[in-house]
Design a protein that fits this description.
The protein is α+β, with helices and mostly antiparallel strands. The protein is built from two helices and seven strands, in the order ββαβββββα. The chain has a five-stranded antiparallel β-sheet with strand order 5-2-4-3-7.
């Protein structure tokens, strides 16, 4: 992947905070639940869920990056925090594509320009994982 393929919001080195709702929206899920959501999302997308950032220290958060404004069309359940356009500024740490980025990393490789997690599919996976609602329809590719 060349630097021309990367979105301009991916830093060249280390990691930087980026304002959510401008370059992307993000859905944050903590710890093993975030990993479970990612596992199922990856299975449904043949290993290509879109850009996902993982924090490997502290809360061990997983951030699923959606197209700007895409989070607004869904009611996210408790346990999934929405970082989108808001009354106050919300920032997400974004790692560089390569090199030392501790404590952040790309879980499925750095994103290509215009690539995001599918908001509707993520919403269905999050509901299934966090709500354990047996009335939800089975997960399948859209």
């Amino acid at each position: 992947m060349t630097s021309e393929d990367l979105p301009d919001w991916v830093p060249a080195r280390g990691h930087q905070l980026r304002l959510a709702g401008i370059h992307f929206d993000a859905i944050r899920v903590r710890g093993v639940r975030g990993e479970a959501v990612l596992h199922h999302l990856a299975a449904l997308t043949e290993g290509r869920p879109g850009p996902v950032v993982r924090e490997v220290h502290g809360g061990r958060w997983t951030y699923f990056l959606l197209a700007p404004g895409a989070s607004a069309g869904h009611d996210w359940p408790p346990g999934a925090t929405c970082f989108g356009p808001a009354a106050r500024d919300l920032y997400v740490g974004i790692p560089a594509a390569h090199g030392e980025t501790y404590p952040l990393s790309w879980r499925c490789g750095p994103p290509r320009e215009g690539q995001f997690v599918d908001a509707a599919l993520l919403h269905r996976v999050v509901l299934a994982q966090l709500c354990h609602d047996a009335t939800l329809p089975p997960l399948a590719l859209p």
